[in-house]
Amino acid sequence: MNNQEGTKRVRMRWGMVSITICFLAMLGFIFPKYTNVAINNINSLAYLGLPNISEESFRLGLDLQGGAHLIYEADVQHVAIEDRATAVEGVRDAVERRVNGTGVSEPNVQTARVGEAYRLIVDLPGIENVNEAIKLIGETPVLEFKEENDVPSRELNEEERELITQTNSTAKSRSEEIAARVAGGESFEELVSELSEDTITKNNGGSLGNVEAGLSITGPLYDWAKTHVDGDISETPIETELGYHVVKRGKDGESKEKVSASHILICYFGAQGCEDETYTKESALEKAQELFTQANAENFADLAKEFSTGPSKGAGGDLGSFGRGMMIPAFEEVVFSAEVGQIVGPVETDFGYHVIYKTDVEEVATYGLAHIMSKKLTEREVLPPQDSWKSTELSGKQLERADVAIDPQTGAVQVSLVFDKEGKKLFEDITRRNLNKPVAIFLDGSPISIPTVQAVIGGGEAVITGSFTIPEAKLLSQRLNTGALPVPITLVSQQAIGASLGAESLVKSLHAGIIAIILVMLFMVLYYRLPGVLAVISLSIYIVAALAIFKLIGVTLTLAGIAGFILSIGMAVDANVLIFERMKEELREGKSLKVAVEEGFVRAWTSIRDGNISTLITCVLLVGFGASFVQGFAATLSIGILLSMFSAITITRLFLRAIVPLFSRYGNRLFLGFTEKK
Predict the structure, then answer these.
(1) Distance of alpha carbon 127 from its chain centroid, rounded?
(2) Which pTM does this prediction carry?
(3) Model confidence at 448: pLDDT above 60
């Protein structure tokens, strides 16, 4: 019995420690500004390179941060009745991609049918330039057919070269001045915050973490660190591709494993970065399996040069050496677990199927480094790479329609295109010029498909093949029709909410919520005494956990959502009230405090469960069928209810179990007002 009691006490202690750690972590996540100050102090002392927490605030809805509520009506009178819903959905997709490009946080674009009219409802929280957004949204989607740009890129002219030279000379002089100031006794950390032009590390003491060999960007810094010790600061700036750096050496880091490997990549249409339509997903896997059976150490490079579709093809698939975190996880996991000299595969990633040959492994030292950077002006910034695609005369104006089709011979899903008379001639010319080359289809400036021309097409009809699923083919045809069908939209209603009005609503909501929480906590403490205090602590943990989850999953808080959250706090208190009242009944029946606590939770659970489940069912229905503001209310309420059950049943019970041994058998006035019977 004593061993069992001892085990329970140990579990309770660990439970209390776990809750405390989680509470502090969630608090730090909610208030990242103060957490980052602590992290920066640690980094400046220990050069750990701990990352800062994102200081992004809670997502606020239209009614709290201001913005615009726009209603558009689609002109579908020239569209066949059976195609209208699809056409409007395509316009919605185009509008959504447009507003996403404006940088608006959490835009909401919905379609609605009012009688025979089709409408688009657009919510733009926090939008600053409403008129510009209206202009952008109202444009008819633009569909373009483009071919590869084979025009050679131009060289920098003398004026541009002079600009780069002068700018970089200034950056070098600036960095030399910083080095002199550090040598003169000024604080390195303060100069980082004041002068570093590296926006990523400026706010964490300039820490680059533990730098390893083999990285082109930090290679010169690593070479300098090899010949210096902890605390050394470079006397002169060190030049890299990005700029000039005054560097401070930190402690030696843990050595890291680096591997050398080669691979053969077989990509397929639809895979990330794949412009080759030679393979479907199934045929790509078959080809990768075939190459895996053929490959050995002697012929691997030749096979890669002949069959690989990746950029390392010309180098025989050689990827050089790399450490952990430099490759995508699926690839990295396999190559690091393989033996040197082993060929493994096929390994599937987002890029296709890989056959991998691990050629070497080594342990390399790492060094903690911090820096103050003065940026250089690069050629790429002055003369950006030219567009890899150039426009043709063919556009959505000449496309009559796009449909989902099934190949009768193979059963493969395709997208068929039908052009008008003018489009037939233009499309034939394009396919003749680009035989066995890719042609890109752009919608609103973004590529939506890049098929390869396999034959000259002169009939005005074509198909786009690939490893489509039915939903993917429907989406592509919908997007093509969006740019082909004349579906203009007209603004019929506009409601703007000023930022000041939204801020005022937010302040009032916060004040109301804080007052409500304080009143609830006072009631619990005054009426239930010490258990009430424990319930208040549990409630505080619940509030912090709920806010952390809202921020983590990106819940958009609206006035209705805040109301739902406050209501969930009341329901969390209801659970504690039920438990405490059941405990009172058990004590009145003469049961001990320990038994009353356990029985109180057991007997109250069914009432708590049934009440919360009925509310959750209502929330699910509201989320599924309610308007957007009702959905916000239901979402925050449902999250709050789930958390409240955990806080009341788990956290409050843990606290009560921890304090019961401190009281006599029946408690005293501090515990629900009961005293030991005589």
Answers:
(1) 21
(2) 0.50
(3) yes
